[in-house]
Amino acid sequence: MTTPVIVLKNTFGYDTFRPLQREVIENVLARRDTLAVMPTGGGKSLCYQIPAMLLPGLTVVVSPLIALMKDQVEQLRAVGVPALFLNSTLSPQDYAENMDAVRRGEVKLLYVAPETLLTPRIFGLLDSAQVDLLTIDEAHCISEWGHDFRPEYRQLVEVRRRFPQGVCLALTATATLRVRADIKASLGFSQSNEFVASFNRENLYIEVAPKRDPIKQTVRFLERFKDQSGIIYCFSRKQVDELAAYLSQKGFSVRPYHAGLEDDERRRNQEDFIRDDAQIMVATIAFGMGINKPNVRFILHYDLPKSIEGYYQEIGRAGRDGLPAFCLLLYNYSDVAKQRYFIDQKEGDERRVAIQHLDAIVRYAEDEINCRRKPLLAYFGEQYTTPKCNNCDNCTAAAPVLIDITLPAQKFLSCVKRTGERFGAGHVVDVLRGSKGEKVLKWEHDKLSTYGIGADLTEKQWMHLARQLVQMGYLDQGGEYHTLSLTDKAMDALRKRSPIMGQLQEAEERPSNREARRTELDYNATLFGLLRQKRKELADAAEVPPYVIFSDKTLVEMAAYFPQSLETLLEISGVGQVKLRQYGEAFLEVIRPFCEQKGLQERPRLRASSEGKGDRGEGSRRFVAVGEAYNEGESIEDLMAAYAVTVGTILDHLMRYAAAGNRLRDGDDLRAMITTPVDKQEAALAAFNELGAAYLKPVFDKLEGGVNYDELKLLRLVYLASQAG
């Protein structure tokens, strides 16, 4: 008897289900209408694809974007599942042929847009078929409270009534409690058939940085992800065009995407990105919904998103293969003012909801204390109880150096009080700095005792102080204009003149005391690159995106376990029976000679029951993979790019590798990084020879601090390499 687990392994090549997949699939197979809420990259597609293969009739998938349909159908055909789509991109002949295939019962999954489904022509087609499963993807579009409401989605209720014999599955990656209730009420679902997976995407490193020189910050960020895929989101079409042109001029592989481009150009740019012919997409939020590209390694928000829901969905497009990905949001208050200007053009409930969304994302961006995951998950009704995620900027930042800010804090709190607790931070700062602005003079705030008493600090310093006072609980901030008011804690501090500790001025970049938490296997980066080349060749020949052949995660496992036969290749995640027959030998022809040349042996892959634990164990031995790659000729710069870490981390790995008794090659790139004068280098090497290389402090002391610790780390590696030779 064929079961969901057998289909999962034989067709899709996976050993285990992701959280809630099994439960949703079993609920659907029991013919119970189901709402499933799973994060982007959480495996929603399998929740209807596996039932579609087990149910006798047809599965209809309602999807809002043409790109998603084409993408899903290509991937399903690659694993041997009969799937088709009906939309406006098909020629009349292809459209008619696809409809005939549905009538003949040759199709298991049919993808349609909501407006296509609601036509008499398609109703007639489906009346002649046995519709066993109606899947509504992006179901949040049903709700007026969702961030992407679409009126045509409301009409799907009629489709649901037209095919009462079929079970209905509604899927979404972003839905608040209110939106979920609206979806269930609209479709007539019962409470007991709702499945909500955790919204936490553990593999995403999340960071918010002050937006100071965005062009320079963007280039610096992109340089960390050489030859890797990513998306940059901008607020306006003009910004997209300007940034894409600049980056292209700088040599980056980049394409623009927004609604103002011609349809052909927009489609061509998207195809280039999906097929890895272009690495970076600069886009408005019009791009990405339904794009199932699993190897997006970074998301950069060049401008502030409109809502937390939109932001969460956009960062969710990174790391869908489960490997680490990085998400950076550049933030300044001028972006808030720009969005508020456009919101002010709206009216009534639309304006009120937009303000609520903007306020939520501003609070999130300005929070420099709490774990980024806490407010994100709380927005969707999920409590994050882990004290530190160790995978966001707030959790990995070095402990801030606090100073006594009592005097400026008292000035600010007093000014809030004297201006009547009726204004936002910007106006309070204007009063403190002695502004002659129209608003200050209109309210006669130039006559207050606090007027001009804060001229010693810049506007930026005062605004940073204001955010701290809100976060520390001295100020409440609310309403349409972010009005500040004093809390009981603030009144008590003013009365007692209690000391207040904080930071007076924002650092250029907050120092981090650890690397982002990593979750991938140790793998051979050189072999991974060769496997990517082979994948691209096969994908181009088949005219499909590279990830339709295999995902990055599958290639990473190949480069970690070095399978030498079809049998062991089948144990790799993502390798099913059909893909094994189609591509197995092609990839083994890359792996075998590489392993023979490098003297590498096949490694046993840990089974699913202990896989998570095993991965963590191997992750702690990354220094071995780094050391081996360095000895094979990889440069320090190459290793930094391959593992997306700092030079300090690579040096630490090399030190651990050498300390474990392994030989380390004497590389010129190590010596080239040393800036210490030659005579002091020789003195340091002599000190290591005399005192040993286990600890740096004895050498530092012997040299009387003449060589700093960063340089001593490099010199120690040079010393160890010379000893190994």
Characterise the protein shown here:
There is one protein chain. The termini are far apart. The chain has 5 domains: 193 residues, Rossmann fold (3-Layer(aba) Sandwich); 193 residues, Rossmann fold; 100 residues, Winged helix-like DNA-binding domain superfamily/Winged helix DNA-binding domain (Arc Repressor Mutant, subunit A, Orthogonal Bundle); 95 residues, Orthogonal Bundle (DNA polymerase, domain 1), CATH 1.10.150.80; 86 residues, no CATH class. It is α/β, with parallel strands linked by helices and 725 residues long. β15 and β16 form a beta hairpin. α2 packs parallel to α3 and α31 crosses α32. The protein is built from 36 helices and 17 strands.
